[in-house]
Design goal:
- The complex is a heterodimer of chains A (107) and B (115).
- Chain A has 107 residues and is mainly β.
- In chain A, the strands form two sheets. Chain A has a five-stranded mixed beta sheet with strand order 1-9-8-3-4, with no helix packed on it.
- Chain A starts with 8 loop residues before the first strand and ends with a strand.
- In chain B, a hairpin with a 5-residue loop joins strand 5 and strand 6.
- Chain B is built from no helices and eleven strands.
- Chain B starts with a strand and ends with a strand.
- In chain B, the strands form two sheets. In chain B, strands 2, 4, 5, 6, 9, 10 and 11 form a seven-stranded mixed beta sheet that branches. In chain B, strands 1-3-8-7 form a four-stranded antiparallel beta sheet, with no helix packed on it.
- Helices cover 0% and strands 55% of the residues of chain B.
- Chain B has 115 residues and is mainly β.
- Classes of the chains: A mainly beta (107), B mainly beta (115).
- Chains A and B meet through strand 3 and strand 4 of A and strand 5, strand 9 and strand 10 of B.
């Protein structure tokens, strides 16, 4: 079973920031938090990962709480092409995918 | 970059036949590759982990004699579905990690339909 908890779905207006929350209260001290997304009928796409510091790359920002029990993925300017299922996963040798969050970006 | 390809992208076969799916890391060497399966409206389920030159490690409930995995080089792993049945119809996805790293990079998936 997945060890993270995410809302089943979220809507976001095109051009606005999409903030996707994730709870990972059982995460171990040396486990990373990984975010992937899966666009319909494609393989998952790596987005970002972090341990305890906030991270930013060309796709997104990752904000991790100080206690590491939750994190938020931020897509700063969502576009229609960002519509996908977003997975938050506690890292390690194996990735356990939960149901993720269906993000719908609407014009 | 970290590009992973799969071939074929889709395949239709008759019940009882075997199907081979290839997973290649195109621009990096992958010591470890993973095979997942995804049924409609469900999430990805890990089937097995394969290390180059070693036997694959299968997850509980996955038949190793039915799903043969070979990882003979640092850029290629193959999954062979033997004696396929309609219930094996699914979306098969591989991933690979760069040597010494943990991040998995996924292929585009292979859709298998067994008639």
């Amino acid at each position: 079973d997945a060890k993270t908890t995410q809302p089943p779905s979220m809507d976001c207006a095109e051009g606005r920031a999409a903030n996707l929350p994730c709870n990972h209260s059982t995460i171990s001290g040396n486990e990373y938090v990984y975010w992937y997304r899966q666009i319909h009928s494609q393989g998952p796409q790596y987005i970002i990962h972090g341990l305890k510091n906030n991270e930013t790359n060309e796709m997104a920002s990752l904000i991790i709480t100080e206690d590491r029990k939750s994190s938020t993925l931020i897509l700063p300017h969502a576009t229609l092409r960002d519509t996908a299922v977003y997975y938050c996963i506690e890292g390690g040798n194996k990735l356990v995918f939960g149901a993720g969050t269906i993000l719908r970006v609407k014009s | 970059g970290a590009v992973v390809s799969q071939h074929p992208s889709w395949v239709i076969c008759k019940s009882g036949t075997s199907v081979k799916i290839e997973c290649r890391s195109l621009d990096f060497q992958a010591t470890t590759m993973f095979w997942y399966r995804q049924f409609p409206k469900q999430s990805l389920m890990l089937m097995a982990t394969s290390n180059e030159g070693s036997k694959a490690t299968y997850e509980q409930g996955v038949e190793k004699d039915k799903f043969l995995i070979n990882h003979a080089s640092l850029t290629l792993s193959t999954l062979t579905v033997t004696s396929a049945h309609p219930e094996d119809s699914s979306f098969y996805i591989c991933s690979a990690t760069k040597t010494g790293q943990e991040t998995q990079y996924f292929g585009p998936g292979t859709r298998l339909l067994v008639l």
